[in-house]
Design brief:
Elements: H1 12-15, H2 22-30, E1 33-40, H3 42-45, H4 53-64, E2 69-76, H5 82-86, H6 89-92, E3 100-104, H7 107-111, H8 118-133, E4 138-142, H9 148-151, H10 155-172, E5 175-177, H11 179-188, H12 194-197, H13 210-230
Parallel strand pairs: 1-2, 1-3, 3-4, 4-5
Helix pairs in contact: 4-13, 8-10
Amino acid sequence: MTHAPRTCDTAPDLVNFNFPFPHLKEALKRKRKIKIVAIGSSSTAGEGHIVPYPCRLELALRDRFHGSMIDVLNRGIGGQEAPSELSRFEPDVIDEMPALVIWQVGTNAVFRLKEFNFDDVEASIATGLDWLVGLPIDVVLMDLQYTTGVIEPDIKFAEDMVSRISTVAANARVNVFRRFALMKRWSVDGHVPMSELIDPTDGDKLHMSDWATNCMTQALFGAIKQKLETEGIT
């Protein structure tokens, strides 16, 4: 018997954005070619056979906004964290002159606790946001994935980093895509087995499965679309 695909709960009550996208909105109104930069670590770059979210998001945005050629540039490098990502902001992000930047942070700080100081990571995120918000660029921070490699051995470290990301974003008045809360809802409330959230080929149990990556992308796309529609982009 063939099983039906698992339903994707995009949880708009968790992930919808608080702040507008003035620069992306203006670009959609006035430009044919629009750039979005996705910067982060391996869940941005892609790992193994799983198609990463930037590719999926690009297709969804192009399908929705037919009048624009939207390119989502993948600037992920596996294993990096905010301090090293900050060092390549100028060539990989700012020089591209994107309308929107999606910055995925915090995962490696938790997964490799002995290598990172949370205060340093938080300070790097704050510095990066300070650079970006002074430019004609909208920003979304994406927080951690809820996978075994992130929440074990003690979920308190992941929760601490999630809280820090939320605070820094609020101070800079930029949106947060609450990936950790979204995936936690799938697991805890939706009873999706952790084995279905994790790439089965990943021995570290860190990276997201194809289903989780696809569903997360749908949620991110939905949050962007909903905010733009409330701002009059139809």
